[in-house]
Amino acid sequence: MSECIFCQIASKSIPADMVYESEDVVAFLDRHPVSPLHVLVIPRIHRETILDLSDEEWRGIHGAINTIAHEQGVAETGFRLVNNCGVDGGQTVAHVHFHLLGKRSHHWPPG
Prior knowledge:
globular, 21% helix, single chain, 2 helices, five-stranded antiparallel sheet, alpha+beta
């Protein structure tokens, strides 16, 4: 989808500070971070919500998150992983994405 900003980032039409790339997944620093570490993890192929991901796509994203958490030094200390699904869930970009937040203490409830 050429109008999707995340598809444009995944295809490198729009620059981003990449922290992870594979054939199926890319991850980049959020331009408006809410935590000292704020990485967006997305599939290269356009999928609107987590409900549209195949099992294989889920595995690829999970593997990317695992690698990023270790590389960024938050696997040991902890991190928050957020996905907003649909309008009522707070999803503002219609391309499935996960926010990996770390390097600070996160409290419950979020918000």
